[in-house]
TrEMBL record, chains A, B:
GO cellular component entries: cytoplasm
GO molecular function per UniProt: DNA binding; DNA-binding transcription factor activity
Record localization: Cytoplasm
DNA-binding region (UniProt annotation): 17-56
Protein name per the record: Redox-sensing transcriptional repressor Rex
Domain CoA-binding: 80-181
Single Gene Ontology BP annotation: response to redox state
Family that this chain belongs to: Belongs to the transcriptional regulatory Rex family.
Residues that hold NAD(+) according to the record: G91, A92, G93, N94, L95, G96
DNA sequence: TAGATTGTTAATCGATTAACAATC
DNA sequence: TAGATTGTTAATCGATTAACAATC
């Protein structure tokens, strides 16, 4: 996987969190925020906030704080969210359909351009204006819609094959929801999201209390 | 949040991963596995595998390896997955509906017992045999179904209120899909899953390459 | 026994936090 | 100026990895 040097993975996740607080603060009319207020809102330490930001530049004014709108814009730029991203979802099952309609993606700059499946019954149908295509036309549609991101929402046994096809079609980033480890070339960015594993953190901590 | 001493959070996530490989290996007839083979299958180092397991006991035989079935059972016990867990989903929107039908939960021991919403149009309906109830009867149903886990799939602005209700109803663990930090008492286990943030890791790494 | 692999210790690496000079 | 808050360094903390004795 491609990695920018020395910046902890967790920092990226926190930047995302900070940005959500910042836009909320700005919309409420709060123009200046401090590392302390960001920390309070997001559940981290003020030192952590300043350290996270320091990886990318100097965005504040000593003695004053940060301009909420400006810092928001800086973070969005850092996260690559200063543009919109067309996204393909592979798998028109329950999960794929839900993700295609999840508003949270759209709000942050992601547009689900199309959904792919290999079930003839589903091909040609639409999900809230998003077309479902056969996997055979993946490469063609990826080019047509300039898609760089793919979401794998197929069963585990099909995930690696789908990943290979995404890579072949020219996709650069993959979010994998299938409960299996897939492998991709070094120049492809991969992220696995295991919904059940998230619940398993809860059950782990709930046992033996 | 409740934490067992000294065990890294990441270890729990990896145990979940190991267990998936182990059951697959067992079902293929592979009775003995090594830390090396587990590592290869899950993308970690063999030392990491052994260290993760060592937090909980001695499960292998020196010179031989681990019995796949036995180690699987041990890990499932550690994760609290040696029993089934009734789960409530709050929010019958796109995400809530998809999660309620997501097979990955059922496979790992989670049963979605009921869905809650406050939209009168949705109350009384069913989603693949799961009833949708009004939030007003949350406490009653939590007791009836012995529910200990709740999944919040409502918009951000409603999330804290829903969390408070879940706690009041006696729920012990919460998975929050709303893009906001909610607060809960110390004895409640909370996990936030931000789907958009996962995509934002991809866009971060894809920028500036 | 020789070869293999675990369980564990010590070394290394990396992330977080505390502290404070810089400066508004 | 006095008070506040950043940006950054050094100290601390915690997780991962390497190495190896134990032992099958």
């Amino acid at each position: 996987m491609i990695k920018k040097a020395k910046i902890p993975d967790a920092t990226i996740g926190r930047l995302s969190l900070y940005s959500r607080y910042l836009i909320e603060a700005y919309e409420k009319g709060v123009t200046t925020v401090s590392s302390q207020s960001i920390a309070d809102a997001t559940g981290v330490t003020p030192a952590q906030v300043r350290k996270d930001l320091a990886y990318f530049g100097e965005f504040g004014t000593r003695g004053v704080g940060y301009n909420s709108k400006e810092l928001y814009m800086h973070i969005m730029k850092i996260l690559g969210l200063d543009k919109r991203w067309p996204v393909a979802i592979i798998g028109a099952g329950n999960l794929g359909r839900a993700l295609s309609q999840y508003k949270g993606f759209h709000e942050r700059g992601f547009d689900i351009s199309c959904i792919f499946d290999n079930d003839p019954k589903k091909i040609g149908k639409k999900l809230s204006n998003i077309n479902i295509y056969h996997l055979d036309v993946l490469e063609e549609k990826v080019k047509e819609f300039k898609i760089e991101l793919g979401i794998i929402a197929v069963p585990a046994q099909a995930a690696q094959e789908v990943a290979d096809k995404l890579v072949k079609a020219g996709i650069r980033g993959i979010m994998n929801f299938a409960p299996i480890n897939i492998t991709v070339p070094d120049n492809i960015v991969l992220r696995r999201v295991d919904l059940s594993a998230q619940l398993e953190y809860l059950t782990y901590y709930l046992e033996e209390i």
